[in-house]
Design brief:
Blueprint: E1 7-10, H1 19-28, E2 33-37, H2 51-58, E3 64-69, H3 81-102, E4 106-109, H4 121-141, E5 145-149, H5 162-169, E6 177-181, H6 182-187, H7 192-198, E7 203-208, H8 229-238, E8 244-247, H9 255-270
Parallel strand pairs: 1-2, 1-8, 2-3, 3-4, 4-5, 5-6, 6-7, 7-8
Helix pairs in contact: 2-3, 3-4, 7-8
Length: 271
C-alpha cells in the first residue's frame, strides 16, 4: 500500500486493543505515521504502559510515532482546581517522558480548564496559562512541541475556537502551536475555512474526522457527515499547512475497515 507522508492515524481509533495491537491495525490500514493516545489507555501513565517494549517493537516496523495526545480526563477527582491543575502537569510530564522514548515530536493537549465552584472564566484561564507554560517547557526540553487543540464543551469549560486559543497562548512563551480538530469546529458551529485561516502561522497538527452537525461529536469517517472536504483542503493549502492530517475516526466494531475507508476517502479529497 502506498505511503502518504501527510496522513497519520491515531491509536484512539482502536480503544479495545492494546497499544501494540492498535499500532498493528494502523500499519495494516496503511497509516504509517502515528499519534499515540494517552488518556485512559495506551500511553497513559495511569495504565502502566511499557514504552521501552513498544520502542523495541517499533524499531523493526515501518511505523513512526509523530505525536502523542496528552491525558486530560479524571485527573485527581475531588481535588481543588489548583490541585487538579498541578496533577495534570505532573501527569503530562510522565506522558512526555514515555512519548520521547517512542520518538514523538508533537504533543497535543486539550485546553483543560479546571475550576472551583465560584471561579469565573478569567480565573480558569489564569490557572491554565502557567500550566501550559510548564508543559510546553517540558516538551521543548525533550525536542517536542506542544499543540493546544480546539475543544467542545461536552466535558465542561474549555477553549472552543482558534481565536480563544490564540488569546490564551499570547501569554505563553516558546514555540507552542495549535492542533485544529475539524470535527470539533463543526460541533461548535464554526466556519471551517475561518478557523483554518485563523490558525495561520501556529498550526502544527490537524485532527480530521467528519461530523453530523446534530450536537454530537461522532468522529465519523470523512464524507459521512457535513464537512465540505474540498473547501477544507483548499483552506489548508492556502495557509501552506505542512503538518500531519491525523485521522481521528471512531473505529467501532471494525477499526481496520473504518481506517482503510477513511484513508482512501481523505486521499481522494486531497487529490
Amino acid at each position: 500500500m502506498e505511503h502518504s507522508p501527510l496522513l497519520a492515524g491515531t491509536t484512539w481509533s482502536c480503544p479495545g486493543q492494546t497499544l501494540l495491537e492498535a499500532l498493528e491495525t494502523l500499519e495494516q490500514a496503511g497509516l504509517f505515521d502515528v499519534e499515540v493516545w494517552a488518556d485512559g489507555m495506551h500511553l497513559d501513565p495511569r495504565v502502566d504502559p511499557e514504552p521501552d517494549r513498544v520502542a523495541r517493537w517499533l524499531a523493526s516496523r515501518p511505523l513512526q510515532v509523530r505525536s502523542v495526545h496528552l491525558p486530560f480526563d479524571a485527573v485527581l477527582p475531588g481535588g481543588t482546581a489548583d490541585q487538579r491543575t498541578e496533577e495534570w502537569v505532573r501527569l503530562c510530564a510522565r506522558t512526555l517522558d514515555f512519548a520521547q522514548r517512542l520518538g514523538a515530536t508533537v504533543a497535543v493537549a486539550h485546553p483543560v480548564l479546571f475550576s472551583d465552584e465560584d471561579d469565573g472564566h478569567a480565573r480558569t484561564i489564569d490557572r491554565f496559562v502557567p500550566a501550559v507554560q510548564a508543559i510546553a517547557d517540558d516538551a521543548t526540553s525533550r525536542g517536542m512541541r506542544l499543540a493546544v487543540e480546539n475543544m467542545h464543551t461536552m466535558r465542561g469549560a474549555t477553549l472552543r475556537t482558534v481565536r480563544e486559543i490564540r488569546g490564551a497562548l499570547a501569554n505563553v512563551t516558546g514555540p507552542v502551536g495549535i492542533c485544529l480538530d475539524l470535527g470539533h469546529a463543526v460541533f461548535n458551529g464554526c466556519d471551517l475555512r475561518d478557523e483554518i485561516t485563523a490558525a495561520t502561522g501556529l498550526l502544527i497538527n490537524a485532527h480530521v474526522h467528519d461530523s453530523d452537525g446534530t450536537g454530537r461529536d461522532p468522529h465519523l469517517p470523512p464524507g459521512d457527515g457535513i464537512v465540505d472536504w474540498p473547501a477544507a483542503m483548499h483552506a489548508f493549502q492556502a495557509i501552506n499547512y505542512s503538518g500531519r492530517y491525523v485521522l481521528e475516526v471512531r473505529g467501532g466494531d471494525d477499526p481496520l475497515g473504518t481506517l482503510r475507508r477513511s484513508r482512501e476517502r481523505l486521499l481522494s479529497f486531497m487529490s
